[in-house]
Amino acid sequence: MPSLEKYQLKKLLFKSLLMEKLLFRQFFLEAWHASISKKLPWLFGAIIGIVSILETQLTLDVPETTTPDELIAILAQKAPDEWLWILCSLALLLLFGIFGRSNLIPSLSFVAGKKNLSNYPDNRKALGMNFLRGLCLEGVMIVMILCSVIILSFPLWLASVHNPGAMIPLTFLALLTLVPISIILFFVRQYALLYLLLSPIGIRGAFEASAKLFSRSILQSFFFGLFAFLLTLLFTFFLNLAILSVSTLAAAISIPSEKTFPVIIISGLFFAWFALFQQALWIAFFRTIAGTENKEKVVTEKTAPFVENTKVPDVPPIQ
User: Fold this and answer.
1) Which pLDDT does position 201 carry in this prediction?
2) DSSP, residue by residue, 257-269
3) DSSP secondary-structure letter at 316?
4) Treating both helix axes as pointing N-terminal to C-terminal, what angle do 124-162 and 80-107 enclose, rounded to 10 degrees?
5) How far is residue 249's CA from residue 259's CA, in Å, rounded to a whole number?
6) Could you give phi then psi for residue 309, rounded to 5 degrees?
7) Contacts for 38-42: CB closer than 8 Å, 24+ residues apart
8) What is the mean pLDDT of residues 129-141?
9) From CA 114, how far away is CA 95, in angstroms rounded?
10) Helices then strands (H, E): number in the chain?
11) Within 60-166, where are the H helices?
């Protein structure tokens, strides 16, 4: 029957597509090789690792809460100066994190098959330009997230004024809407950052290219996102196991500052390596799905001063 043959053809195409695109083992091996082959990416991975540790230490002062009353009680315990210091510290750490990641991606350009990248972060000009481009993109993403939250919150505000009984179903509906929006924005942000830092296009062109890429590879993106999430869980498990082992060993042999220094060193190394490995993993995946895309005209903006070309270069597929 034609319908059965059509279904079997779609099923075959789907399987072949996944087998071709989602080469998880190859992605893993490429990311592992990238994490141990060059020294410069370790510098930016270390920055991201230090930021992660400091953010964790700052958030330890705020215990988990279950009700708004508990949250208000916790907020009331700290003086305004303390909260101001915490917020400023988090903002500073956010900037350092953006700096680390926006320069880590170009330093891993060899994973995408890019050689002699003009914004390779081995000089101050490239370091600053990469940071500014990453900062602008993150700012645009924050605005997009805020707009989404405001739009979804508007019906809730109207219901709280005119029909409080509708708050529960509207809140549930808003959450159901926010979850897919957040997932889409997450993947668009990942691809836009890679386009922005691995090709000579501006922010507008990066968002357009990333939106087209995501719409063309939705299933691949979701499967890879699940794969990356599982690796993150596995990393967290091994990190906790390593910290527990080091703390136990330090206590057994009576090393001074056993509860802080060894744990911080081990955590820093693990976070630095995983930041490098995870970013290389995303670049390897991006190289595969973006490299098979047909040549398209992408709207470009005025590029950075150190970029000569105005056409978006193809990201070559995995050989």
Assistant:
1) 87
2) TTTTHHHHHHHHH
3) P
4) 130
5) 11
6) -85, 155
7) 38/107, 38/110, 40/107, 40/121, 40/122, 41/104, 41/107, 41/108, 41/276, 41/280, 42/272, 42/276
8) 94
9) 26
10) 10, 0
11) 68-77, 80-107, 124-162
Residue 137 has pLDDT above 90, yes or no: yes
Task: Give the C-alpha distances (Å, rounded to integers) separating 224 from 35, 113, 154, 289.
Answer: 19, 20, 34, 11
From CA 18, how far away is CA 93, in angstroms rounded? 38
103 three-class SS:
helix
Amino acid at 269: L
Specify whether the CB–CB gap between 272 and 46 falls below 8 A: yes
Nearest to 22 by CA among 172, 224, 209: 224
Q: Residue 6 pLDDT > 70, yes or no?
A: no
Amino acid at 290: A
CA distance 312 to 41: 24
The amino acid at residue 200 is P
Note the pLDDT tens digit of each residue in 145-159. 999 888 888 888 887
